[in-house]
Amino acid sequence: MLKILERKITLQLLVFYALFVIPLLLGGLELYFFQYNALQQSAQQADLALAQSIAQNVETQVHNVGQEAMELVHSQAVIQLNRLQMLSLFTVSKQIHPEISQYVICDPSGKVVLNYPAGPTSCGQNFSGPDYFQKVPRGNSYVVSADRIIQSGGSYVVPVATGISDGHNHLIGVMILNLSLAQLNAHLKAVQQQLTANGEVRIWIIDSNGDTIANTVGVSPRSSLLRRIPSLRIALRGKAGNLVAQDEQRGWLYSYVPVSGTKWAVAVGRPVDATFATAISFQHSLIIALVMLLVGASVFWFVMHGWVVAPISRLAQAVAMMRPDQTVKVTASKRLAREKSRQDEIGRLVNAFSTMEEEMHELFRKSDAQSHTRLQTLDAIMRSMYEGVLLESPSGQIVYANQRFTRFVGISAQEMLSDSFQESRLTERLEALMEAPEAYHEALASAERGDGPQVIAFWMRGYYNQFGQLVPSRRHIRMRLFEVRDMTGQLIGRGKIFNDVTQQSEAEQVKKNLLAIVSHELRTPLTSIKGYATSLLETDVELDAATQRDFLQRIVEEEDRMAELVTSLLEMSQLEAGTLKLVPDLYRLDTLIERAVKAAKSDNLPIHIALPAELPVLRVDGRRIEMVLRNILENAQRYAGDGAEVEIAMRYARDQEDEGIFLTIADNGPGLPGDLTERIFERFYQVDSGRRRGSSGVGLGLAICRGFIEAHGGRIWAENRTENGGGAIFTIWLPQRLVHVRGAQNNPFELGRAL
């Protein structure tokens, strides 16, 4: 990832952009959540403070009523239960405390003895049942009804009770003061009116059962608020807090606070949208600011990318596409047209690269011309070399192979130097041609390690000619290994020079054979000629005409033998020097065979000729093809033995690879040794090489045959027969291009096509 980041300026700038924008976004989000929560908490705290203020106010009113009750029960009028004095006392108290709607005095059994002002509560009525009567304290405290709201005189009240005791702390009665809820509602509405300027406000006072004591909504007391807002049940647990509830399909924030000294709770409700208006406004403002930040940063990024980064990226791509051998300038493409017309640094940079590309192309053209000339010269030198040259990289990949080497192994240079070529294929081809590939690889490994000779000699079974055909001719190869190093001495490749030293190896044998020829094959005929000529020149010996004719005939035969030997030597030298000139013409195959049979003097050798009805007309050098057939027949006559027979047959093949004529000459003699089917075509080689030389030949016949056939582009080989009692069979293949087709235009035979 880091490497990709180092190579792409776009990614680098994008990272810097992210490092700038992401912290701002994170800071904005943190501010959003923190400040939004802070504003919400501030609004909740404000409502909770309001609820606490109302709760304290209610507590004060209830406490004032309780204090008034305790002051009254300590008066002598109440202790003495003086009716007239109590009425006077209650009249004054009610003027001071208008929230007290009724004063009730009961005896210890709960029976009403005094009721002021007169109302629904009558004297004699029993009040011993309510909870507050059961828990009434004795003069030093008071009790407020926790869950009992009664209706008195058409309005709802909450009883506040305290005990009346004498000087001996004996309970002599109970005083009950009814706190008017109408006065409490009026007080809550006055508070609501003061808060209405800041939005809609609802105020509730509920008892321990969740029933309404007072409210600003207009709901009657004793109705259950929990049915309307069930979640406010948590407010009855004596703790202060806030909650959000749904009422009338609208969200409300309720702040609840317990009223000290009672089991009541005050709940102040405000609409969520109004309560959190500041927080929501801040939220919207912050979102708009963040969106504007993103939009502004994105616009900045896209503008910077389109005006700076993208041109630099296009320039980098164009520079990466620059090649010295290109004919079209990459900086002149349409992608950089707008940048080239700019007057700022990017425009100057693009124009500088354009100028650099022009100079590079100019330098390359000059260098390429020089390099091309040098490469042509070097390639011409390598192609003109007699040795095969192979260059490999240190890893074994083929770098170069000259024409001599590629032709020898039968693989074209284009195929060998292609990217898809497998080096193992060349190794397999060389192993198939070598007689001992294991010894070659062992010697090569020793040479590469440096503990063996750098020159390796080995024998190959054959080679490929100029037509890509495998020639099964035994070749002696001497390979020299060398290393290619640069100026610093670093190994950059290895080279192999393959030199065909077959002719050099055979030169010594040729010298020996020439000595044998001169000493035997030429001397013997000359001795015979001299003897017969001397006899004819003798004057003291009378020779009859028949004897003289016989001597002269012997002289002619020996001379013909010498001439044939000299001709064979000349033909062989021309084949080796590559100066053999063919004289092609049209010949019928049967005519060539008849001439060869007649010239072979094979009267004592039965020859069976089996040719098809339609014989082809060949465009060949008739004299040399006839010599090939005659040499093979004479060879059969010489080695097949007495009683041997020869069969001559022909077939026409139409296979794509071997299309042409196959001519076979087979005998039923002893055959050939299995390991000599190729060596018999070597110069001066005879199967019975250990016998004393006679007049049977010097071992050039089959070598000349192979040379003549290959000069025509054909092949000749020998093998043993596996049917009809055995024997040897010689096969001559002539390609289809030598067959003359009637009605076709006769093109002159070209030596270049044959060779």
Alpha-beta classification: alpha+beta
Tell me, briefly, the overall form: rod-shaped
The average pLDDT score comes to 80
Query: Based on DSSP secondary structure assignment, what is the total number of beta strands?
Result: 26
- Report low-confidence residues grouped into runs of 5 or more: 689-695, 743-755
**Overall CATH class of the largest domain:** Alpha Beta
The appropriate CATH architecture of the largest domain is 2-Layer Sandwich
CATH topology of the largest domain: Beta-Lactamase
Helical content stands at 40-55%
Number of helices: 20
| Sheet with most strands | 6 strands, antiparallel
Taken as a percent bin, the fraction of beta residues is 15-25%
Distance between the termini: 62 Å
CATH homologous superfamily assignment of the largest domain = PAS domain
Count of the separate structural domains: 5
User: Taking Cα atoms only, what radius of gyration do you get, to the nearest Å?
Assistant: 66 Å
Structure characterization notes:
- By secondary structure, this protein is an alpha+beta fold.
- It folds into 5 domains: 29-275, Beta-Lactamase, CATH 3.30.450; 280-361, no CATH class; 385-500, PAS domain (Beta-Lactamase); 506-574, Signal transduction histidine kinase, dimerisation/phosphotransfer (DHp) domain (Helix Hairpins); 580-754, 2-Layer Sandwich (Heat Shock Protein 90), CATH 3.30.565.
- The chain has 20 helices and 26 strands.
- Strands 1, 2, 3, 4, 5 and 6 form a 6-stranded antiparallel beta sheet that branches. A 5-stranded antiparallel beta sheet has the order 8-7-11-10-9.
- The longest helix is centred in the first third of the chain and has 65 residues, at 9-73.
- It starts with a helix and ends with a helix.
